[in-house]
Design brief:
mainly alpha; two-stranded antiparallel sheet; 2 strands; plasmid
């Protein structure tokens, strides 16, 4: 008996090294060679239990490197213009209090 088809489709959140290389538009060999250097720059390591990479963590790293979001405190040395910006108080930003 055939397995029922799911009623929805999804994109896996966790990725293999080959998936990551493809996602970055690079070869698996390039990724294997550059991975240590990338990890020094804050690139997320694979999950220690699952051995897979979290796509959202990779997206966050890319966003930080391109300056789309501020670096997290754990990775405040990542390059990008947002690291030199003054901190914004969310209350002041939401309500215009100075």
């Amino acid at each position: 008996m055939a397995r029922p088809k799911p009623k929805f489709t999804f994109s896996p959140r966790l990725m293999t090294a080959l998936d990551v290389a493809t996602y970055l538009n690079r070869s698996e060999q390039w990724f294997a060679h550059k991975r240590p250097q990338m990890e020094v720059a804050g690139f997320p390591r694979p999950d220690p239990l699952l051995g897979l990479y979290d796509q959202r963590a990779i997206d966050r790293w890319l966003d930080q490197r391109s300056g789309l979001v501020a670096a997290s405190p754990a990775n405040d040395s990542a390059p990008g213009p947002m690291n030199d910006a003054p901190a914004v108080d969310p209350f002041k930003a939401a309500f215009g209090k100075q």
